[in-house]
Design brief:
Order of helices and strands: HEEHEH
Radius of gyration: 16 Å
CATH class: Few Secondary Structures
Number of strands: 3
CATH architecture: Irregular
CATH topology: Factor Xa Inhibitor
Distance between the termini: 25 Å
Number of helices: 3
Structural class: alpha+beta
Shape: elongated
Helix content: 25-40%
Strand order of the largest sheet: 1-2-3
Largest sheet: 3 strands, antiparallel
């Protein structure tokens, strides 16, 4: 009997990516609209990618992105 491949959750694949060392990167939220009330410093810091905490990495790696 052939082994069934797991499907990648495409919504997660669009939101997360892996670094070379295995950490999970994501784009930070709150930079889409209503930008006038946010300070320049806050908007500048939101531009950089976020690194997911180590507690959540196994969930992303095993369930959502099994071949990532």
């Amino acid at each position: 009997m052939a082994k069934i491949k797991m499907k990648t959750k495409k919504s997660a694949a669009k939101r997360f990516s892996f670094t070379g060392s295995g950490k999970v990167k994501y784009k930070k939220q709150n930079l889409r609209h209503i930008l006038t009330k946010k300070s320049a410093k806050r908007k500048r810091n939101l531009r950089h990618a976020g690194i997911l905490s180590e507690d959540n990495v196994p969930v992303i790696r095993k369930k959502l992105l099994p071949y990532g």
